[in-house]
Amino acid sequence: MNLYETVLLVNPELPLKDAQELSEKYQQLIKKQNGEIVNTEAWGKLRLAYEVEGHKEGLYFLIQFKSDTSVLQELEKRFKYDDNILRQALVKIDGKKFKLRKKSDEKEKKERARKGSPKDTEENAPKGENVGAAEESTPKEENIKEKE
């Protein structure tokens, strides 16, 4: 079984409840085909970079799953004929090079770092250095040699 993820761009005129049911429908399809859902996220309504089928916004859903390649063909076929899906991307993830993280986890970490949470700044600081300590201004060897 390989690790895959799909991002669905759903028609923003569709009620949120119906859009979530659409995402659930595809998750059930994956499970019926002996796939395993790893992670799902509803990113909500986001502005598009360009208009897609006359829409300036879209509802985004992420589904990360493990399955065989036979599931991919079925998913792509269903995505193609579903009028509520404006766009979709289905990619294979190399588990050795890429760690799955929730988008919300990354946002929280950035927010804590932006607010200056001592916990985050201490974790991210190189070992042996104090957080917020001013750098010492010592001339480099190159500058000393130039002056001589």
Question: What is the strand and helix layout of this fold?
Answer:
Blueprint: E1 2-10, H1 16-32, E2 36-52, E3 55-67, H2 69-81, E4 85-93, H3 103-115, H4 118-124, H5 141-147
Antiparallel strand pairs: 1-3, 1-4, 2-3
Textual characterization of the structure:
Residues 100-148 are annotated as: Disordered. Belongs to the bacterial ribosomal protein bS6 family. InterPro entries: Ribosomal_bS6, Ribosomal_bS6_sf, Ribosomal_S6_plastid/chlpt, Transl_elong_EF1B/ribsomal_bS6. Keywords: Ribonucleoprotein, Ribosomal protein, RNA-binding, rRNA-binding. Residues 100-111, 117-126, 137-148 have a biased composition (Basic and acidic residues). The protein is an alpha+beta fold and 148 residues long. The protein has a domain at 2-92: 2-Layer Sandwich (Alpha-Beta Plaits). It is 39% helix and 32% strand. The protein has five helices and four strands. The protein has helices spanning 16-32, 69-81, 103-115, 118-124, 141-147, and strands at residues 2-10, 36-52, 55-67, 85-93. Strands 2-3-1-4 form a four-stranded antiparallel β-sheet, with helices on one face. A hairpin with a 2-residue loop joins strand 2 and strand 3 (55-67). The longest helix is centred in the N-terminal third of the chain and has 17 residues, at 16-32. It is globular and about 45 Å long. It starts with a strand and ends with a helix.
